[in-house]
Write a structure and sequence with these properties.
143 residues; mainly beta; Immunoglobulin-like; 2 domains; 3-stranded antiparallel sheet; 46% strand
Length: 143
């Protein structure tokens, strides 16, 4: 029964990204197999990646760009979440809370991208990107 539980524990630790750093085997087992394992030292990560989820962008007409608002979302955040902008442009702004807005109220047709990373209160991080496409006609979508 002991061997089965060890195998299950290794499977679970492997699924969460833990790594085996040291395996000590009994010297009388030839060739070395897990049957002769006397001690396994395991390290489990203390962090995980935050993953951006929809919306990744939006499309609005230049007429409808006035008053545009959106919000970034990430999966896996624990505690307080903060968004940091790395590539700044003159059109799209992202607040520390993840709110997306336009700096000028009315925007000329074009494609405007902004990127950065999110960090939660435990230090977990993940990258995000948002692309706003402004069209000259009336077609719009978000996502």
């Amino acid at each position: 029964m002991r061997r089965v539980l060890t195998g299950v524990a290794l499977l679970v630790l492997g699924a969460v990204g833990a790594g085996i750093t040291t395996i000590n085997t009994a010297s009388n087992v030839v060739p070395p197999t897990y049957a002769g394992v006397t001690q396994i030292q395991v390290t489990a990560p203390g962090w995980h990646n935050l993953i951006q989820e929809d919306p990744f962008g939006a499309t609005v007409s230049s007429r409808e760009s006035e008053g545009f608002e959106g919000h970034l979302h990430v999966l896996g955040a624990r505690g307080e979440l903060r968004f940091v902008t790395e590539t700044v442009n003159s059109v799209v702004a992202v607040s520390e809370e993840g709110g997306v807005s336009l700096r000028p109220h009315s925007v000329a047709p074009g494609i405007y991208s902004v990127t950065g990373y999110a960090v939660d209160s435990r230090g977990d991080t993940g990258t995000w990107a948002f692309t706003l496409t402004v069209t000259a006609d009336g077609r719009t979508s978000q996502g």
